[in-house]
Amino acid sequence: MIANALLVTIAFLLAYGFWLMGELKFMAAYKVVLLHAYGQWICVSAATLFFNIFGAVLLLQRKFLLKNTGRKLSHLDRQFQVGQIEMPTPSGNEEHF
Known about the structure:
By secondary structure, the chain is mainly alpha-helical. Helices cover 72% and strands 0% of the residues.
């Protein structure tokens, strides 16, 4: 779930970055001056935006993709409690690292 949220966040930020580069073409001549003067604040703002979007995507995924997970898996829990499922035992000829 974290990997999916990270993928969606990176895709969103890439799309936003490309759109922003298209909108700010007129500032390309001043990029060295702007990065020197405001580079730290741009990085902090980008990191804050990343974590906010990542948190929002993770929250939405947990809200909609894990809906009723406990109810869906309750039959499996009942089978384990009753003992209907036999757990495989490890064989002695396997090598353990």
